[in-house]
């Protein structure tokens, strides 16, 4: 995969702080504060319990350091790594209270984002050998879009638009209200400005012909059969980017990619990917009283 850029902490620290506040509530960690002496230092490991791709390690690490800046994290496997069950992802060392208090928040982020990366990686591997890129959509958890789209990149995928403001995507309801595809495209071109690309969703070859005649930048081929996709790619002939969409899975992705489309967009990568099981395991030999 290409180099994975680090996610700026400004994008995730407010989310982690909000999650910690939700967990700590009005009285803090009653269990840990009662059971664990304040001067105990511990070493624990973040370990994978199943095979998958890692994403969100910096996000998880921030949960520990926000609780106590003295916590130290040694990263063993960076984001984008493929790990096996039992692999140590990171070692966490510091005040035991901080490790236990931040544990669930850290794992919630790390397991969720790694699950997205793992699901993405599976589809990316399925289409290896074809030119099609796997991309996500705006079907994200409210508030977590930047993190979830980062997880897709960690899994080897790419991102579709981040929001309503970075590209024009004319969909079926826009066309229905505008009256027809030509009118919708003309209005978009007049209102969006020369720097904004225009994509149109089509669900038939007839609609595709109209969109191409208007000179759009990309076409979203929605819920078309493999046969229709092949015809659509031939009709486009490189004049626009082609994007296939509609319930694509690792099993069906190879046939879709073989049609020659440029992009395959998949919503479930972010809205329904199962977590990757990761645990925070105690090192029984790593507990000590502070000097």
UniProtKB/TrEMBL annotation:
One of its GO terms (molecular function) is nicotinate-nucleotide diphosphorylase (carboxylating) activity. It holds the Pfam family QRPTase_C. Keywords: Glycosyltransferase, Pyridine nucleotide biosynthesis, Transferase. Its EC number is 2.4.2.19. Pathway: Cofactor biosynthesis; NAD(+) biosynthesis; nicotinate D-ribonucleotide from quinolinate: step 1/1. Residues 116-281 form the Quinolinate phosphoribosyl transferase C-terminal domain. Residues 29-114 form the Quinolinate phosphoribosyl transferase N-terminal domain. PANTHER family: NICOTINATE-NUCLEOTIDE PYROPHOSPHORYLASE [CARBOXYLATING]. Belongs to the NadC/ModD family. Involved in the catabolism of quinolinic acid (QA). This is nicotinate-nucleotide diphosphorylase (carboxylating).
């Amino acid at each position: 995969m290409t180099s994975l850029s680090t996610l700026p902490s400004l994008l995730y620290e407010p989310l982690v702080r909000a999650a910690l506040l939700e967990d700590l509530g009005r009285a803090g960690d009653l269990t840990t504060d009662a059971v664990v002496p304040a001067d105990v230092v511990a070493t624990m490991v973040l370990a994978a319990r199943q095979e998958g791709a890692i994403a969100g390690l910096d996000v998880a690490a921030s949960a520990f350091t926000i609780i106590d800046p003295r916590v130290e994290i040694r990263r063993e496997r960076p984001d984008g790594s493929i790990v096996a069950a039992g692999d140590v992802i990171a070692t966490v060392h510091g005040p035991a209270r901080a490790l236990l208090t931040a544990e669930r928040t850290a794992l919630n982020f790390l397991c969720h984002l790694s699950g997205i990366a793992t699901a993405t990686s599976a589809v990316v591997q399925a289409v290896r050998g074809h030119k099609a890129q796997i991309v996500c959509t705006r079907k994200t958890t409210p508030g977590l879009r930047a993190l979830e789209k980062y997880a897709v990149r960690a899994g080897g995928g790419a991102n579709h638009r981040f929001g309503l403001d970075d590209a024009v995507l004319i969909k079926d309801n826009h066309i229905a209200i505008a009256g027809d595809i030509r009118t919708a495209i003309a209005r978009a071109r007049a209102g969006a400005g020369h720097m904004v690309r225009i994509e149109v969703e089509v669900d038939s070859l007839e609609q595709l012909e109209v969109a191409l005649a208007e000179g759009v930048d990309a076409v979203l081929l929605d819920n078309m059969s493999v046969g229709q996709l092949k015809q659509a790619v031939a009709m486009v002939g490189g004049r626009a980017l082609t994007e296939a969409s509609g319930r694509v899975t690792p099993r069906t992705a190879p046939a879709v990619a073989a049609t020659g489309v440029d992009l395959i967009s998949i919503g479930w990568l972010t809205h329904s990917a199962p977590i990757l099981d990761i645990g925070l395991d105690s090192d029984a030999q790593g507990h000590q009283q502070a000097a």
